[in-house]
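<goal> How does this chain fold?
<sample>
Here is the protein in question

***
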Amino acid sequence: MIFRQLFEPVSSTYTYLLGCPDTGQAVLIDPVVNSMDRDLQAIQELGLRLACTVDTHIHADHITAALELKKRTGSRIAAPAFDRLPCVDFGLEEGRPLQVGGLSVSGLHTPGHTDGHFAYVVGERVFTGDALLIDGCGRTDFQNGDAKALYHSVTKKLFALPDETLVYPAHDYAGRHVSSIAQEKARNPRLGAGRTLDEFERIMAGLNLPYPKFIDAAVPGNRACGVCPVDLPEELDKYCRPMAESPQG
């Protein structure tokens, strides 16, 4: 498998490029609209063709590039079937892998951050979205989030994967790139080292996080598979403006 991890700095989002070397077909997991030119350049440089975009959930901190990439390349849009988005071409469900060339993308319903959240297993990698981060996890206080559901999603589903499975999250805010199931089970301060459900619920209830500054624009835009709102305030315009410079060059 051809693999690239790409970083969007405005929302600290990781987009993952997966390519089938036999067919030349590619998948983008969690593409961001303001970095899609960088992603398309990477696909072209690798001699691939974008077949499909896959989102882990309805994002609250950026606009997905799924719709714009479909317009530009003809790629299909895949997302959790749970959310029943009319703009989706392939609704992902557990037990029904998405096949793109030689790539098999197997979904795991991992609610808690949002009720429709999915993680995706591809070979020895799991793309955990916001359900499981490196030494952390996504918040559970909006979009039908639920701390108890997230605890069970991580401990019963993600931690049940082989210890050597590589964990690739949707975000990292400290420059880290990858973890493993063994590492998160051992040392994740919220969910690892045998944390109980009661302990986890107390941790999440005590976070006192601020209201997400882009959520009111991002959620309706992402329910339409990636529509940037018109007349964004100047301080939010950066979420939809094409990146002038990419950390990947």
